[in-house]
């Protein structure tokens, strides 16, 4: 855990924009940023940072509803607000077809965790297909708070070519969003898992405010929540580490 300190949002925003620009200079001078757009704070802030670093003509927003998505208009409005081009790819039938094929081959229903993670992995495959067709680089949109407790899908939303927010907590991401003058509609949109209808905080069992304070300052009032956060961090740390490999020294 890091020591609590004042967060200089304007300076961090400036530094992140410069970092994105430098990264693209080294890893794709003529390429475009490909951002999966949910309309929530993370994808909104990442897209806005990329626009500031590269210009709106070099950012593509990819909307990937799974069938009918009640809040898809929020994603459309974010793209319109930033003035970036958008691509809509509905993954609903793909998820259904692959789920049916898997269940037929396995002779059983997919586990609940497979049902939750499969769409995220199909979305990432979609982003890379768009990226390789449009000379792009895929933006990772995860933040430190979600990564800390493993609230993300390995080879799904955890993947990407560059990651602007993975060192920032939820609280800090929102502050960056305000520096970028994003409307509250995008910064404060309640994230839901898309399956149970529950919010992220309802699924986790604690608030991001608690989690962020614990990460940055090492303090939390609820002992049960502390234990849960520590256990989730311990169990999910492997997701952020390189794949273990057998080392042959011959």
Automatic annotation (TrEMBL):
Family, as annotated: Belongs to the NAD synthetase family.
Keywords: ATP-binding, Ligase, NAD, Nucleotide-binding
InterPro entries: NAD/GMP_synthase (IPR022310), NAD_synthase (IPR003694), Rossmann-like_a/b/a_fold (IPR014729)
Identification of the protein by name: NH(3)-dependent NAD(+) synthetase
Organism in which the protein naturally occurs: Filifactor villosus
Pathway(s) it belongs to: Cofactor biosynthesis; NAD(+) biosynthesis
Catalytic activity line of the entry: deamido-NAD(+) + NH4(+) + ATP = AMP + diphosphate + NAD(+) + H(+)
Enzyme nomenclature, EC number: 6.3.1.5
Domain NAD/GMP synthase: 15-240
Database matches in Pfam families: NAD_synthase
Gene responsible for this protein: nadE
Signal peptide positions (record): none
Single GO term (MF): NAD+ synthase activity
CDD domains registered for this protein in UniProt: NAD_synthase (cd00553)
Enzyme class at the top of the EC tree: ligase
Entry annotated with the keyword Glycoprotein: no
Zinc-finger recorded as keyword: no
